[in-house]
Amino acid sequence: MISRRALLAGLGGIALAAGAWATGDYRATMSAANTSVARRSSVIETRAGPLEYAIAGRGPPLMMIHGAGGGFNQGLLFGHGLHEAGFQIVAPSRFGYLRSAFPDDASPAHHADVLVELLDHLGLDRIVVAGGSAGALTAAEFALRHPDRCSHLALIVPAANLTGRDPVEFSAQQRAAVERVLTSDAWFWGFATLAPDMLLRTLLATDPALLAHVSAEERQRADLIRDGLMPISRKTDGLRNDGYWTGTPAQTAFERIVVPTLILSCADDLFGTADTARLLARRIPDARLVVYPDGGHIWLGHDADLARDISDFILARATHRS
Predict the structure, then answer these.
(1) Nearest 5°: CA angle at 249, between 243 and 253?
(2) Does any domain span residue 155?
(3) Residue closest to 14 by CA, chosen among 228, 198, 206
C-alpha cells in the first residue's frame, strides 16, 4: 500500500496556484486535451449504448483495453510498441470513459460481452486481447466468457483484489481529496501542472526517480500517459467504477480460463500488481509470468520489453498450435 500524505499536503497549495494560472494556461490545456480525443475515434451502438473505439495500423488484430483514467487513446498508447511490431491495435473506451456509455450494469463481465459486438462490427472472428491495470479485469472476462473469440490473453500490471483486501486502501480524508482531484478538470490540471512527480507517484504508482534512468522516448511516454488523463471530467463514471471493481474481491473464475495467457508486471509497482500477477499465474492454467525488476505501474523503461515479450508469446503459441 502506498502513502497518500504527500497528495493531501499538496492539494491546498495546488489549488491556490492553479487559481493564478487558470486564466490562460488552463483553458489552453483543456482545449488541447479535448482536441486530442476528438475526431480520432468511432462510435457504434450496442445493446449497452454507445461504444467508442479506435484502430491503428495493419496486421494481426490485437485489442488493447485501457486502464483507469484512460480511454481509447490510452489503449493506443499502451499498444504503441505492438503497433510498431506489426499488429493492428483495436482500442475501445470502456464503460464510463469518453464517448462510451455507462450502463446500469458496468461490470467487467458485461463490458466483455459488449466487446463481442465490436468484433462482429469489425468482421473479426478471433483476436488477441490485452488489458492494462483495471482493464485487465475486462480482458480476463473476455477470455473466460468468449474463448472462441480470443486467441491469446495478456494481462498487464493487473489491478484486482484477489485476497479479499483492497490493495490500494484510502482513508476517508484521502478519498475526499482524490475525489476532488479526479472529478474537477481545474483541480486535476493544477495537480498535473504543478506537481507532475506527485501525480506519477500517487495516481500512476510509479517512482519519479525512474525518469532519470530511462530513455528520452520513455520519459515522453510517461508525459503522454499523464497528459492523456485529461479531460478527467469525461472519465468520472469510469474512474469510480474502476475503483469499485478493483477494490471488490474479484468475481472472475480465473481458474477456468483456457486461452493461452501471459501476465506481466513490475516488482516496484506501487499498486502491488506484481503480487497480484503471481497469484493470477497460479490460478490461470499454464499461464506464463514475466515480472520486470522495476518500471512501476506504467512499466517505465520496459515498453519495448513488454511489446517484445507479448509479440514473442503470441507468435510462439501460434506456431506451436499450428
Answers:
(1) 115
(2) yes
(3) 198
The pLDDT tens digits for 9-59 are 454 444 544 554 555 665 566 556 565 665 689 999 999 999 999 999 999
Report if residue 190 sits inside a domain.
Answer: no
Sign, Cα dihedral of 84, 303, 241, 136 = positive
pLDDT in tens, 260-300: 999 999 999 999 999 999 999 999 999 999 999 999 999 99
Strand partners, 129: 63, 153
Give the domain CATH number at 238.
3.40.50.1820
**Distance between CA atoms of residues 168 and 159, nearest Å:** 10
> pTM for this one?
0.89
Q: Residue 63: inside a domain, yes or no?
A: yes
Residue 1 lies in a domain: no
As for how many domains the chain has, the answer is 1
Amino acid (1-letter code) at residue 40: R
Q: Which domain holds residue 97?
A: 37-168+205-321
